[in-house]
Amino acid sequence: MHYAKIMGIQACSRGLRHSFAVYAVSRAPLTMVKKWLGHAKLETTEIYLNVIGHEEREIAKRIWQ
Question: Does residue 2 lie within any of the structural domains?
């Protein structure tokens, strides 16, 4: 049973992975996030650092806490 559907959340595996990556790069070392995502190159993981600007990232941190 798909839990997102039960809770009425629109979600797909790609969207959840992307959301996790954006959240993780603000909380964990980039090299760890690279490993968790299975990226071969650090440059691929670095893309998630540019999704939102520094100020937006700080605001997002406060929302998640």
Answer: no
Domain that holds residue 40: 12-64
Q: How many CB atoms lie within 10 A of CB 23?
A: 16
Count up the domains in the chain and report the number. Answer: 1
Per-residue pLDDT of the chain (65 residues; tens, 9 = 90+): 466 667 676 667 777 888 889 889 888 999 999 999 999 999 999 988 887 667 777 777 777 76
Is position 5 within any domain?
Answer: no
End-to-end CA distance of the chain: 29
Q: Are 25 and 49 in contact (CB under 8 A)?
A: yes
11 near 27, Cβ under 8 Å? no
Predicted TM-score (pTM) of the model is 0.65
